[in-house]
Amino acid sequence: xxxxxxxxxxxxxxxxxxxxxxxxxxxxxPEQDTLHGVGDLVARGEDxxxxxxxxxxxxxxxxxxxxxxxxxxxxxxxGIKKPKKDDKLAPLLAAPDLPELLDWLRxxxxxxxxxxxxxxxxxxxxxxxSTEKLLMLSEExxxxxxxxxxxxxxEIMYGNTPRVWEDTLSGTKRLxxxxxxxxxxxxxxxxxxxxxxxxxxxxxxxxxxxxxFTFPNxxxxxxxxxxxxxxxxLAGDTNHPQFVGLDTGYxxxxxxxxLHIETNQLISVDx
Length: 271
What we know:
Blueprint: E1 6-9, H1 16-25, E2 34-37, H2 48-57, E3 62-64, H3 68-77, H4 90-93, H5 98-105, E4 111-114, E5 118-121, H6 131-145, H7 151-156, H8 171-183, E6 187-189, E7 194-195, E8 209-211, E9 225-228, E10 243-245, E11 255-260, E12 265-270
Parallel strand pairs: 1-2, 2-3, 5-9, 9-10
Antiparallel strand pairs: 1-11, 4-5, 6-7, 6-8, 11-12
């Protein structure tokens, strides 16, 4: 009797060929297995269009959270921003099924859970939040992103402030902080202010900064696992069994990695 398997995949970034090789490596069966993404499904790889079309074709066998590149795609498609120089989005933006793909994409949240133990978010868990609070704040953003006037959210999401969380934040400031923490966070300073400029491995970072996952979080349970992507230079080096980083930089010539939930095994293919 076949057993359903769940796989969480790191940042695909439009690398369609690598995605297919990794799924082939585990003999992924879309009739009984489920694939979960940690965001950044599109952008700097060779074929974002085929990537989105394929993932959408999986129907309920694919779930994801949104990353900063996914949100930027929505903003570009709505004329709010221009494509980044290194993004290879032209075929996707010219595709006849672009509206359907965008509507499908924006139904995904910033954070979600697989079972009761694995929480997925693109960048990480801000240390002042529990996973329950993370999911609640994600839902606040989803209510805007899934509405008919979702472009209003895309208009106001860009910017680096505020840099520290307060429960009293409201309106644009609140939504922007939630989006930034969920999709752009890497480092914090000692007073837990977000710092966006530094992207290096922690072994090369300034002493004034620390990765978000090194801060004590009194809210996270011992049986929880937080799975994230976003940080290619980290290469998964969290040195903490509860925090699993899956962005191993395939689009930069390194590897594409998946976590098999049921066995807790990491599986990779090289670029």
